[in-house]
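Whether sequence alone determines local backbone shape is best considered at the level of individual chains. The sequence in question and its structure tokens are set out directly beneath this paragraph.

***
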Amino acid sequence: MSQHDIGLIGLAVMGQNLVLNMANHGFSVGVYNRTTATTDEFVGGLKNEPADKVHAGTIDRVKGYHTLEDFVKSLKAPRRIMIMVKAGKPVDAVIDQLEPLLDKGDIIIDGGNSDFVDTNRRDKDLREKGLRFIGTGVSGGEEGALKGPSIMPGGHADAWPFVKDIFQAISAKVGPNNDIPCCEWVGDAGAGHYVKMVHNGIEYGDMQLICEAYFILKHALGLSNEELYQVFKSWNEGELESYLIEITRDIFTVKDGNSGEYLVDKILDTAAQKGTGKWMSQHALDLGVPTTLITEAVYARCLSAQKDARVRASQILEGPKDAKFTGDKQQFIDDVRQALYASKLCSYAQGYVQLDAAAKEFGWKLNNGNIALLWRGGCIIRSAFLGDIKTAFDKSPTLENLLLDDFFKSAVAKAQPSWRRVISTAVQLGLPTPVFSAALSYYDGYRQGRLPANLLQAQRDYFGAHTYERTDKPRGEFFHTDWIRERKLS
């Protein structure tokens, strides 16, 4: 008998918490997992969960199934099935198993961290078979999945009305009355997963920027973890207020249960990655847009992974000798704050430039202001100034670059002296700041009316006859010079 509002496949922690979130909001949910024991353990264990995790009536709204056939039959028409399995081939395998069991108009939702290229393909394939596909980004981790994530759906627009109430009910809420859902339709095909990819790329950048700020404060000023806690606490009370600054503040208070020393100092300095930051950088190159900050953040993780090689190099390679910071300590802490803020603004500016380029490439109609709203709550990059980004695009929906908005232009102008002092000081002390530096280089490059690419084009024409345009001729006219014949011999 058809009874459930929605079904979910894949009962890892994210899947389980999304099920509870839906059921806690009054929706009936059927669940299926390839391993039946996992299904039984999850459903059977609900009675032992605390009331803040499993609300009154939730247990009666969740039912597990041991076969896909019974699971599919239990869903109301049009069937809404959310897949929460590992991205890539596992998603395709589940879709292949579901297809013969579904009717035209049924809806398949991929809520994993899928590559938007796969989502484009799946949307096209399923449309041809009469099924509707949604690829949706879900951000916020395990806690967000349970209490309210940021949800970024895209795909078959006709499917949106059938999942809108569920998705917006379970999403994070923002606004003066805490009633604006961090979930809205993004666009066609892979647009939802593309926006999630950009979110994750910005997350890479934000995290690396915070790490560079920490590294500078620790090694240039010698701040203790107690002092770092106070710095990040104060930063989280101003324009840098954000989830990542908040958790960084908390990290500096945690001690190792065995040694009694601060845990952060016990953690090996090698960072892992799951690929979404890399995907963003790769597609930036395909689109020809300079997403330099996020790409440097990816490379920073790659360099961190070369731990053994770095340890060997540290015994051989030299940097500045006897270099010490000699300036005003409190002023420099504030300089780092402003450099972090300006760099974050550049990160978001680059992210939106890439979104605009992708929208043009794929014919998506993205609402940049709404995308900022999606990220204001529930997700990892939620921060105070996302409201300023929404305001900027509300004022000018076709804004070419966030740095051109009056608010952001003045914020970067104010931070610029500090930004330059921090990077130059780090260089003098031999402290790496790849992402701070990439952000400033992007800003300086973007504000130049003329760059040295004229010489680059002359070089390309010299050795490869690639031609060039001229400043005194209309754009689109190309010229070639026989440089060997025209050169002056010494």
